[in-house]
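go over this chain:
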Amino acid sequence: MLNFILFGPPGAGKGTQSEMLMSRYNLNYISTGEALRKEIKARSQLGMKAKKIIESGGLVDDEIIVQIIGNALQADARSEGFLFDGFPRTYVQAYILDGLFTRLQTTLTRIFILEVPDDECVSRLLQRAKEQNRSDDNEVVIKRRLQEYHQKTLPLLEFYESDGILTRINGKGTAVEVFDRINKHITDELNRKPANIILFGYPGAGRATQAMRLARDFNLQVVSTGELLHEEVKEKGPLSGKIEPYLSKGLLVPDELVIRLIEKKLKSTDGTGRGYIFKGYPRTLVQAYILDGLLKKQGAAISCVINLKVPLLELIRRLDARSHTTAKMPYDSSAATIVARLEEHEQRTEPVLEYYHQQNQVIEVEGTGSDEAVYERLRNTLLKSIRNLR
């Protein structure tokens, strides 16, 4: 979940940047003013209290503000994140926001402050006033607003700067140039989030190709039990003598042997990436429980399960085509063996998928089309999943 606050003086371009951020990252816009107006329009108890205070010329107190903002957050709790404007305005409200996020089991991701010199802001606002025929936006009023901004914002910046989540952005240049500066920091933030992915798919779905590309672009380590087993035998590792008989007969290698290899892989790559992408594992319900335990020992867990879906006839066509290449597998020899392998895969993996479905971790991705088209779908899916990690 991505949660941002965008600060900036009047004329810094917050409105434009807010729209671009909301569009790119599917964020919900939270404005104190808008939230107040919504409660008043709905004639809620809170709205009526706020209306009475406003009409008497007073300022709505934090007791009401916190409830109104809380309602706005709860209403969109399933969103991919929030972008705040006009809140928090005070040191007290900064603590209030922390408390609201705690209730949602999330945190503030980052605060961006658009830095634009006062003379540039004055120039922009005077130009806007001229274009929009706004006589109330004169130089005296604009300078007063800028002074008020600096007086109110400084304490908040000190509050957040100590947390290390404040990022200052050069606000000069075109809207696209400024957005690119902001987006670079967000991309870096996403790339630091740990992620552990399971990539499901029938034989012929293209898991191997796509797993390697995802691993490269997201700094993940690929864990393929098939590769680990063959590598152990090829290098004559300590378990090769026990593994080889199973592989030579095309039998499943016992879990107790596979676990040892996965543990070894996780230890050897620990700290060298942000997480793992598991291909070909787990294949059974027992292995799903085992994987949970293996990751728990590392203080990690599965982030999401991506199921690459390809129609049955397309899978058969692909596997038949592969049988005429050097990449062919033993079961590619005939239509009968291909169908048998697909049936076996279905029987073994359906309970595993159901296990992850029950935990709301499965994301279905269409696996037909060119490798590039499929990868683009996978990449966007994974980006969205990582953004939504709480």
User: Anything to note?
Assistant: The two ends are 5 Å apart (CA to CA). The mean pLDDT is 87.
